[in-house]
Amino acid sequence: MSNKNHPSGASQLGGADLFDLEIIKKYDKAGPRYTSYPTAPMFHAGIGADDYAATLKRVATDDAPLSLYIHIPFCNTVCYYCGCNKIVTKQYDRATPYLGLLLKEIDHVADTMGDTKRLVTQLHFGGGTPTFMNNDQMRTIMAKLRERFHFVAKDEGEFSIEIDPRECDENTVRVLQEIGLNRMSMGVQDFDPIVQKAVNRIQGKDETLRVLNEARAHGFESMNIDLMYGLPHQTVETFDTTLDTIIEFSPDRIALFNYAHLPHMFMPQRRINEASLPSAQEKLNILEHSINKLLDAGYVFIGMDHFAKPEDELTIAQQQGKLYRNFQGYSTQADCDLIGLGVTSIGYVGGGFFQNRKEMDAYTEAVEQGEFPVFRGYILSEEDHLRRQVIMRLMCDFSLEYSQFETDFGIVFRDHFADGLADLKEMEADHLVELRDDGLTVLPAGRLLIRNIAMVFDEYLQKKKEGTSFSKVI
Ligand SMILES: C[S@@+](CC[C@H](N)C(=O)[O-])C[C@H]1O[C@@H](n2cnc3c(N)ncnc32)[C@H](O)[C@@H]1O
Ligand code: SF4
Known about the structure:
- The protein has 474 residues and is of the alpha/beta class.
- 39% of the residues lie in helices and 20% in strands.
């Protein structure tokens, strides 16, 4: 099944190859999304501001490119389903002190790195709603970043922003383009008015299409739209109408997320009437129908919730074995140091994770006192790096060639991972994975269950056996 020039083989697959109902039901359990390895529950308070400062100094003269993540936490209204780190407020003047803190934090990082010459090839504004910042504030942040870091030319990098179309007029799109952004991701979830009312997110088709068209007119590439299945009142029929509209809009990428309903962790979700949520069977029906429909419309299943057009750079990178995964999902930019800026943000620098304070007061206090607001993190061991690479390649390529890891890490793969490979035997019998002497290939029916396959290589999950704070894999 494996095609060496085509690690994913994805474009050859139809929905029936990917979706096997009985198998999905059998393996449906909670699991991490592996936007990081080790996952966030492993972060601990033994790592703090001093470790971060020392790490930034140590990596300042490295050659590899840099990635920047800027978190803007504010949202004007709350979407009840939301599991993101956000602060809901209608007071737009709260953006002003936050801007000051961000500028200070940027200066602190750049000073500590001694005005590093490392090139920034990737930048992402996430939220919350990044455009809660007004146009001048966005200009100010970018001007500061450009003053303190060296950016590659716009067409050589991935410079992106998450957009809520309700908070974005034409002027905003123009300014975002002017300051050097070239990728946009828009939240939609579902266009059905009953669903939108139940989740408190009223967003018209016209305003979404308007932003998409304006972004295209301003040269934005690779427009992404986020959808979600499993929301209240959704049925195959209602979601089909949403899919029709989205396919007509023809975004380059589509993320189809499984609604993670964890009301014990996310307060606003308690406002969702659980009786109105689709049954497990209906959710699977919606997923199956959506996969079929998107593949029929010409999209390629990249993996873990993501679809892209065949000519999109994500699809091409996957075909070339050059796809990566980071906190924002899939990326074409090589695995590099990521500097997180803003409240709650997580960075990955010099082989360690560093997370900023989650509460605005604590973040503010630290930054105002000239300290890094880092409150926890994790330094990867050699073993962690090995497992991180294994999980990354699995998620991106749907296959592993053992020799690569044996050369890079001086192990004998089949001995080192004997337990994990033994755990895969049942999945092999269920035709989810093909185990060979020199590698493994995830078979079509295993692609939707890639998290389950990755989980056997997660040392900490294997020790704990069950992760309670994770959402279901499907
Ligand atoms: C960090 S949010 C920010 C997007 C932006 N603020 C907006 O609303 O358009 C990015 C995406 O996460 C997804 N998301 C949010 N809450 C989720 C949940 N509970 N389960 C699954 N996906 C979720 C949604 O698809 C959302 O568009
Ligand atoms: S989905 Fe977006 S706009 Fe809605 S609450 Fe979450 S971050 Fe804010």
